[in-house]
Amino acid sequence: MSSSEEIKELKSSLSITAVAKRLGLNVERGHFRCLFPERHAHGDRTPSVSINEAKGYFRCFVCNDVKGDVIELVRLSLGMSFPEAIKWLRGDTPSIVRDMQKIPVQKKFQEEKKSEEHPKFFKEKILFDFLSLLVPIPPNHQVGWWLANRRIYKPIWDKVLLRLLYDYDHVSRALLLKHSLEDLQFVGLFNKQGYLRYGRHPLIIPYVDEMHRPFFFQARAIDKNIVPKELNFQGTIPFPYNKEALDGKHGIIYLCEGAIDTLTLLGHGFNAVGIPGSNSFKPEWVSLFNNKKVILCLDNDSAGRAGEERISALLKEAGLETRSFGLLPEGKDINAWLASR
Ligand SMILES: [Zn+2]
Q: What confidence tier does 120 reach under pLDDT thresholds 50, 70, 90?
Protein backbone atom coordinates (compact mmCIF):
# COMPACT_ATOMS: atom_id res chain seq x y z
CA MET A 1 0.00 0.00 0.00
CA SER A 2 1.09 3.58 -0.53
CA SER A 3 0.82 6.48 1.86
CA SER A 4 -0.97 9.60 0.70
CA GLU A 5 2.41 11.34 0.68
CA GLU A 6 3.80 8.75 -1.72
CA ILE A 7 0.76 9.01 -3.96
CA LYS A 8 1.10 12.79 -4.03
CA GLU A 9 4.73 12.44 -5.00
CA LEU A 10 3.93 9.92 -7.72
CA LYS A 11 1.26 12.21 -9.17
CA SER A 12 3.50 15.23 -9.20
CA SER A 13 6.25 13.29 -10.96
CA LEU A 14 4.02 12.46 -13.92
CA SER A 15 2.76 14.47 -16.84
CA ILE A 16 -0.94 13.74 -17.33
CA THR A 17 -0.59 14.47 -21.06
CA ALA A 18 2.22 11.93 -21.37
CA VAL A 19 0.25 9.34 -19.42
CA ALA A 20 -2.78 9.92 -21.64
CA LYS A 21 -0.62 9.39 -24.71
CA ARG A 22 0.88 6.26 -23.16
CA LEU A 23 -2.67 5.00 -22.68
CA GLY A 24 -3.12 5.34 -26.42
CA LEU A 25 -5.35 8.40 -26.20
CA ASN A 26 -4.92 10.71 -29.11
CA VAL A 27 -4.18 14.00 -27.40
CA GLU A 28 -4.34 17.04 -29.65
CA ARG A 29 -4.19 20.61 -28.39
CA GLY A 30 -4.99 19.45 -24.87
CA HIS A 31 -8.02 17.38 -25.82
CA PHE A 32 -8.80 13.73 -26.46
CA ARG A 33 -11.85 11.72 -27.30
CA CYS A 34 -14.04 10.51 -24.48
CA LEU A 35 -13.38 7.01 -23.11
CA PHE A 36 -17.08 6.35 -23.62
CA PRO A 37 -17.68 7.45 -27.21
CA GLU A 38 -20.98 5.54 -27.26
CA ARG A 39 -22.42 8.14 -24.89
CA HIS A 40 -21.69 10.92 -27.36
CA ALA A 41 -23.31 11.94 -30.60
CA HIS A 42 -21.19 10.67 -33.54
CA GLY A 43 -18.90 8.74 -31.19
CA ASP A 44 -17.36 11.97 -29.91
CA ARG A 45 -15.83 12.92 -33.24
CA THR A 46 -14.84 16.29 -31.82
CA PRO A 47 -12.89 15.42 -28.68
CA SER A 48 -14.78 16.36 -25.51
CA VAL A 49 -12.21 15.63 -22.84
CA SER A 50 -9.88 18.46 -21.95
CA ILE A 51 -6.59 18.12 -20.08
CA ASN A 52 -5.26 20.65 -17.62
CA GLU A 53 -1.56 19.78 -17.68
CA ALA A 54 -0.62 22.31 -14.98
CA LYS A 55 -3.16 20.97 -12.51
CA GLY A 56 -2.86 17.33 -13.63
CA TYR A 57 -6.57 17.08 -14.25
CA PHE A 58 -8.89 15.88 -17.06
CA ARG A 59 -12.60 16.33 -17.61
CA CYS A 60 -15.25 15.37 -20.22
CA PHE A 61 -17.73 18.11 -21.07
CA VAL A 62 -20.53 15.60 -21.51
CA CYS A 63 -19.98 12.78 -19.01
CA ASN A 64 -20.11 13.84 -15.36
CA ASP A 65 -18.17 10.80 -14.22
CA VAL A 66 -15.28 11.15 -16.67
CA LYS A 67 -12.94 13.46 -14.79
CA GLY A 68 -10.15 13.35 -12.26
CA ASP A 69 -6.42 13.09 -11.81
CA VAL A 70 -3.81 10.94 -13.51
CA ILE A 71 -4.69 7.90 -11.37
CA GLU A 72 -8.34 8.20 -12.26
CA LEU A 73 -7.37 8.44 -15.92
CA VAL A 74 -5.54 5.09 -15.73
CA ARG A 75 -8.34 3.58 -13.68
CA LEU A 76 -11.01 4.56 -16.20
CA SER A 77 -8.97 3.73 -19.31
CA LEU A 78 -7.94 0.28 -18.17
CA GLY A 79 -10.88 -0.62 -15.94
CA MET A 80 -8.65 -0.95 -12.89
CA SER A 81 -9.10 -0.45 -9.18
CA PHE A 82 -7.29 2.41 -7.44
CA PRO A 83 -4.42 0.25 -6.08
CA GLU A 84 -4.06 -1.41 -9.48
CA ALA A 85 -3.80 1.96 -11.19
CA ILE A 86 -1.09 3.04 -8.74
CA LYS A 87 0.75 -0.19 -9.37
CA TRP A 88 0.41 0.31 -13.11
CA LEU A 89 1.79 3.84 -12.92
CA ARG A 90 4.69 2.58 -10.86
CA GLY A 91 5.28 -0.39 -13.15
CA ASP A 92 8.96 -0.68 -13.81
CA THR A 93 8.97 -2.00 -17.36
CA PRO A 94 10.17 0.44 -19.98
CA SER A 95 7.03 -0.07 -22.05
CA ILE A 96 4.90 1.46 -19.33
CA VAL A 97 6.90 4.01 -17.49
CA ARG A 98 9.83 5.40 -19.36
CA ASP A 99 8.07 7.78 -21.69
CA MET A 100 5.75 8.98 -18.94
CA GLN A 101 8.46 10.41 -16.73
CA LYS A 102 9.08 14.10 -16.91
CA ILE A 103 12.42 13.75 -18.63
CA PRO A 104 14.04 16.23 -21.00
CA VAL A 105 12.51 16.08 -24.47
CA GLN A 106 15.78 15.31 -26.18
CA LYS A 107 16.51 12.32 -23.93
CA LYS A 108 12.95 11.04 -24.20
CA PHE A 109 13.11 11.17 -27.98
CA GLN A 110 16.33 9.19 -28.09
CA GLU A 111 15.02 6.58 -25.70
CA GLU A 112 11.83 6.13 -27.67
CA LYS A 113 13.76 5.77 -30.86
CA LYS A 114 16.07 3.21 -29.34
CA SER A 115 13.35 1.19 -27.73
CA GLU A 116 11.31 1.05 -30.90
CA GLU A 117 14.14 -0.81 -32.50
CA HIS A 118 13.57 -3.60 -30.01
CA PRO A 119 11.06 -5.93 -31.68
CA LYS A 120 9.37 -7.10 -28.48
CA PHE A 121 8.85 -3.60 -27.20
CA PHE A 122 7.59 -2.41 -30.55
CA LYS A 123 5.00 -5.19 -30.72
CA GLU A 124 3.90 -4.55 -27.15
CA LYS A 125 3.43 -0.88 -27.88
CA ILE A 126 1.22 -1.50 -30.90
CA LEU A 127 -0.81 -4.03 -28.95
CA PHE A 128 -1.17 -1.56 -26.11
CA ASP A 129 -2.22 1.22 -28.48
CA PHE A 130 -4.82 -1.03 -30.09
CA LEU A 131 -6.37 -2.11 -26.78
CA SER A 132 -6.42 1.47 -25.52
CA LEU A 133 -8.61 2.43 -28.48
CA LEU A 134 -11.29 -0.09 -27.52
CA VAL A 135 -14.17 0.51 -25.13
CA PRO A 136 -15.60 -1.47 -22.21
CA ILE A 137 -18.64 -3.45 -23.34
CA PRO A 138 -21.89 -1.53 -22.89
CA PRO A 139 -24.45 -3.88 -21.25
CA ASN A 140 -27.08 -3.00 -23.85
CA HIS A 141 -24.83 -3.82 -26.80
CA GLN A 142 -25.35 -7.07 -28.69
CA VAL A 143 -21.94 -8.31 -27.50
CA GLY A 144 -23.15 -7.72 -23.93
CA TRP A 145 -26.28 -9.76 -24.64
CA TRP A 146 -24.22 -12.48 -26.26
CA LEU A 147 -22.06 -12.78 -23.11
CA ALA A 148 -25.04 -12.62 -20.77
CA ASN A 149 -26.66 -15.47 -22.72
CA ARG A 150 -23.64 -17.52 -21.74
CA ARG A 151 -24.10 -16.44 -18.13
CA ILE A 152 -21.00 -14.26 -18.29
CA TYR A 153 -22.03 -11.02 -16.62
CA LYS A 154 -20.61 -7.54 -16.26
CA PRO A 155 -18.54 -8.05 -13.07
CA ILE A 156 -16.55 -10.67 -14.99
CA TRP A 157 -16.25 -8.42 -18.09
CA ASP A 158 -14.76 -5.71 -15.90
CA LYS A 159 -12.51 -8.05 -13.96
CA VAL A 160 -10.82 -9.48 -17.06
CA LEU A 161 -10.94 -6.23 -19.10
CA LEU A 162 -13.08 -7.48 -21.99
CA ARG A 163 -13.22 -4.87 -24.72
CA LEU A 164 -15.35 -4.00 -27.71
CA LEU A 165 -14.13 -2.84 -31.09
CA TYR A 166 -16.88 -0.25 -31.12
CA ASP A 167 -15.82 2.17 -33.82
CA TYR A 168 -13.91 0.26 -36.48
CA ASP A 169 -13.14 3.32 -38.63
CA HIS A 170 -11.92 5.40 -35.73
CA VAL A 171 -9.67 2.63 -34.41
CA SER A 172 -8.23 2.01 -37.91
CA ARG A 173 -7.49 5.68 -38.46
CA ALA A 174 -6.01 6.19 -35.00
CA LEU A 175 -3.66 3.22 -35.46
CA LEU A 176 -2.58 4.44 -38.89
CA LEU A 177 -1.83 7.88 -37.43
CA LYS A 178 0.53 6.38 -34.87
CA HIS A 179 2.12 3.52 -36.77
CA SER A 180 3.07 2.69 -40.34
CA LEU A 181 0.88 0.26 -42.26
CA GLU A 182 3.91 -2.03 -42.66
CA ASP A 183 4.35 -2.23 -38.89
CA LEU A 184 0.65 -2.86 -38.34
CA GLN A 185 0.72 -5.60 -40.96
CA PHE A 186 3.89 -7.03 -39.47
CA VAL A 187 2.20 -7.63 -36.11
CA GLY A 188 -0.91 -8.92 -37.85
CA LEU A 189 -3.39 -6.24 -36.82
CA PHE A 190 -3.88 -5.22 -40.45
CA ASN A 191 -4.35 -7.61 -43.36
CA LYS A 192 -2.54 -7.68 -46.69
CA GLN A 193 -5.21 -5.49 -48.25
CA GLY A 194 -4.41 -2.77 -45.72
CA TYR A 195 -7.46 -3.12 -43.49
CA LEU A 196 -7.75 -3.62 -39.75
CA ARG A 197 -8.78 -7.20 -39.08
CA TYR A 198 -11.51 -8.01 -36.53
CA GLY A 199 -14.24 -6.11 -38.39
CA ARG A 200 -16.36 -9.23 -37.84
CA HIS A 201 -14.77 -10.18 -34.51
CA PRO A 202 -15.79 -7.29 -32.23
CA LEU A 203 -15.25 -8.95 -28.84
CA ILE A 204 -11.61 -8.49 -27.87
CA ILE A 205 -10.28 -10.70 -25.10
CA PRO A 206 -6.89 -9.52 -23.79
CA TYR A 207 -4.39 -11.82 -22.08
CA VAL A 208 -3.07 -9.71 -19.23
CA ASP A 209 -0.47 -10.43 -16.58
CA GLU A 210 -0.97 -9.87 -12.84
CA MET A 211 -0.29 -6.16 -13.41
CA HIS A 212 -3.06 -6.03 -16.03
CA ARG A 213 -0.55 -5.42 -18.80
CA PRO A 214 -1.71 -6.94 -22.09
CA PHE A 215 0.62 -9.28 -23.98
CA PHE A 216 -1.74 -11.07 -26.34
CA PHE A 217 -5.39 -11.12 -27.29
CA GLN A 218 -8.06 -13.12 -29.04
CA ALA A 219 -10.79 -11.56 -31.10
CA ARG A 220 -14.13 -13.35 -31.07
CA ALA A 221 -17.02 -13.28 -33.53
CA ILE A 222 -20.48 -13.36 -32.01
CA ASP A 223 -22.28 -14.15 -35.26
CA LYS A 224 -22.23 -17.93 -35.38
CA ASN A 225 -21.93 -17.95 -39.19
CA ILE A 226 -18.50 -16.40 -39.07
CA VAL A 227 -15.57 -18.75 -39.54
CA PRO A 228 -13.20 -18.88 -37.81
CA LYS A 229 -14.99 -17.77 -34.67
CA GLU A 230 -11.74 -16.67 -33.04
CA LEU A 231 -8.70 -14.80 -34.36
CA ASN A 232 -5.43 -14.70 -32.44
CA PHE A 233 -2.92 -11.87 -32.20
CA GLN A 234 0.29 -12.63 -34.06
CA GLY A 235 3.09 -14.42 -32.26
CA THR A 236 3.61 -16.54 -29.20
CA ILE A 237 1.08 -16.90 -26.44
CA PRO A 238 2.95 -15.75 -23.34
CA PHE A 239 0.90 -17.48 -20.64
CA PRO A 240 -2.50 -19.10 -20.10
CA TYR A 241 -5.63 -16.95 -20.15
CA ASN A 242 -6.52 -15.44 -16.75
CA LYS A 243 -2.98 -15.92 -15.50
CA GLU A 244 -3.95 -14.00 -12.38
CA ALA A 245 -5.61 -17.17 -11.07
CA LEU A 246 -2.23 -18.93 -11.00
CA ASP A 247 -1.21 -17.33 -7.73
CA GLY A 248 0.94 -20.15 -6.34
CA LYS A 249 -1.49 -20.76 -3.48
CA HIS A 250 -2.91 -24.21 -2.74
CA GLY A 251 -6.19 -24.89 -4.46
CA ILE A 252 -8.10 -26.34 -7.36
CA ILE A 253 -7.91 -24.84 -10.82
CA TYR A 254 -9.94 -25.69 -13.90
CA LEU A 255 -8.04 -25.64 -17.17
CA CYS A 256 -10.30 -24.93 -20.14
CA GLU A 257 -10.08 -24.66 -23.88
CA GLY A 258 -10.77 -21.09 -24.97
CA ALA A 259 -11.34 -17.87 -23.11
CA ILE A 260 -15.15 -18.12 -23.26
CA ASP A 261 -15.19 -21.41 -21.34
CA THR A 262 -12.81 -19.89 -18.81
CA LEU A 263 -15.08 -16.89 -18.35
CA THR A 264 -18.14 -19.09 -17.95
CA LEU A 265 -16.48 -21.05 -15.15
CA LEU A 266 -15.31 -17.82 -13.49
CA GLY A 267 -18.89 -16.58 -13.69
CA HIS A 268 -20.01 -19.73 -11.89
CA GLY A 269 -17.49 -19.14 -9.13
CA PHE A 270 -14.84 -21.63 -10.25
CA ASN A 271 -11.15 -20.76 -10.35
CA ALA A 272 -10.19 -21.19 -14.00
CA VAL A 273 -7.55 -20.54 -16.63
CA GLY A 274 -7.66 -21.15 -20.37
CA ILE A 275 -5.53 -22.13 -23.32
CA PRO A 276 -6.44 -20.95 -26.82
CA GLY A 277 -6.61 -24.46 -28.30
CA SER A 278 -6.30 -28.08 -27.20
CA ASN A 279 -2.74 -28.23 -28.48
CA SER A 280 -1.46 -24.88 -27.24
CA PHE A 281 -0.34 -25.76 -23.72
CA LYS A 282 3.39 -25.14 -23.37
CA PRO A 283 5.75 -27.20 -21.20
CA GLU A 284 7.30 -24.01 -19.79
CA TRP A 285 3.91 -23.12 -18.24
CA VAL A 286 3.95 -26.10 -15.89
CA SER A 287 5.70 -24.17 -13.10
CA LEU A 288 2.92 -21.55 -13.17
CA PHE A 289 0.60 -24.26 -11.82
CA ASN A 290 2.59 -24.75 -8.61
CA ASN A 291 0.42 -25.90 -5.68
CA LYS A 292 -2.64 -26.36 -7.85
CA LYS A 293 -4.73 -29.43 -8.35
CA VAL A 294 -5.60 -29.17 -12.02
CA ILE A 295 -8.95 -30.29 -13.40
CA LEU A 296 -8.83 -30.57 -17.16
CA CYS A 297 -11.94 -29.37 -18.97
CA LEU A 298 -10.93 -29.47 -22.61
CA ASP A 299 -13.63 -30.21 -25.16
CA ASN A 300 -14.78 -33.82 -25.24
CA ASP A 301 -13.66 -34.50 -28.81
CA SER A 302 -10.62 -36.35 -30.10
CA ALA A 303 -8.41 -33.22 -30.13
CA GLY A 304 -9.53 -32.28 -26.62
CA ARG A 305 -8.91 -35.76 -25.24
CA ALA A 306 -5.44 -35.93 -26.83
CA GLY A 307 -4.67 -32.47 -25.41
CA GLU A 308 -5.73 -33.56 -21.91
CA GLU A 309 -3.48 -36.59 -22.09
CA ARG A 310 -0.50 -34.49 -23.08
CA ILE A 311 -1.10 -31.79 -20.45
CA SER A 312 -1.79 -34.38 -17.77
CA ALA A 313 1.53 -36.11 -18.50
CA LEU A 314 3.42 -32.80 -18.28
CA LEU A 315 1.78 -31.80 -14.99
CA LYS A 316 2.24 -35.24 -13.43
CA GLU A 317 5.89 -35.20 -14.35
CA ALA A 318 6.20 -32.03 -12.25
CA GLY A 319 4.48 -33.79 -9.35
CA LEU A 320 1.16 -31.99 -9.75
CA GLU A 321 -2.15 -33.69 -9.14
CA THR A 322 -4.47 -33.68 -12.13
CA ARG A 323 -7.66 -35.30 -13.34
CA SER A 324 -10.11 -34.96 -16.18
CA PHE A 325 -13.39 -33.17 -15.46
CA GLY A 326 -15.01 -36.18 -17.12
CA LEU A 327 -18.59 -34.96 -17.12
CA LEU A 328 -18.81 -33.52 -20.58
CA PRO A 329 -21.01 -35.33 -23.08
CA GLU A 330 -19.36 -36.39 -26.34
CA GLY A 331 -18.61 -33.37 -28.55
CA LYS A 332 -19.65 -30.82 -25.92
CA ASP A 333 -17.65 -28.03 -24.34
CA ILE A 334 -18.02 -26.81 -20.78
CA ASN A 335 -20.15 -23.84 -21.78
CA ALA A 336 -22.72 -26.01 -23.52
CA TRP A 337 -22.69 -28.36 -20.53
CA LEU A 338 -23.28 -25.63 -17.94
CA ALA A 339 -26.00 -24.08 -20.09
CA SER A 340 -27.81 -27.41 -20.36
CA ARG A 341 -27.94 -27.95 -16.59
ZN1 LIG B 1 -17.75 11.70 -22.36
A: low
